[in-house]
Amino acid sequence: MTRIGIIVGTTRPGRLGPQIAQWVETSAKTRAEADFEIVDLADYDLPLFDEPRVPRLGDYEHAHTRAWSARIARLDGFVFVTPEYNWSIPAVLKNAIDFIYTEWNNKAAGFIGYGSNVGGARAVEHLRQIAGAVQLATVHTQVNLSLWTDCENFTTFTPAEGHDAVLQRMLTEVIALTNALAPLRQA
Q1: What are phi and psi of 74, to 5 degrees?
Q2: In terms of pTM, does the model score above 0.70?
Q3: Is residue 175 predicted with pLDDT exceeding 90?
Q4: Distance between CA 67 and CA 62 in Å, rounded?
Q5: Domain containing 60 — which CATH number?
Q6: Residue 11 belongs to what domain range?
Q7: How far apart are CA 9 and CA 90, in angstroms?
């Protein structure tokens, strides 16, 4: 069975990421083609990148890196849930991506961005560039959520009508691309 990780891309206290990831997981559980699971960066407590060797080698010195590597390696594709911080992604998400390399290769990625002005679109565009650098294949459809219209008081996620259809379209693309890339991962 195809395994898709829903990555919560922030660890900030009071973050909306876990609520959005739960919405994705609940919606995704209606699908029989893949298993979806939440991967919360807050559960890994990664320090700033501290491995002495480049990630391409896969020769990790630290237990926290080996744990993160194992978690990502067993997944076949991803849905990244990221807020927009100063027109980009949170540093903790970039750091988590940078810790490993081959574990990302030949896997699909879809994106959900959220923010106050453009629904996290700038963060997602930045994340697409980063994904390409670690050989993640990205899907076209993305979900953009507004803190003004999809949240109550910036603390409670309440998706506006129409987001469910876009989410389902993105999930279809992630599953299809993940399955198409399977032969490359097995090689």
Answers
A1: -85, 0
A2: yes
A3: yes
A4: 9
A5: 3.40.50.360
A6: 2-186
A7: 7
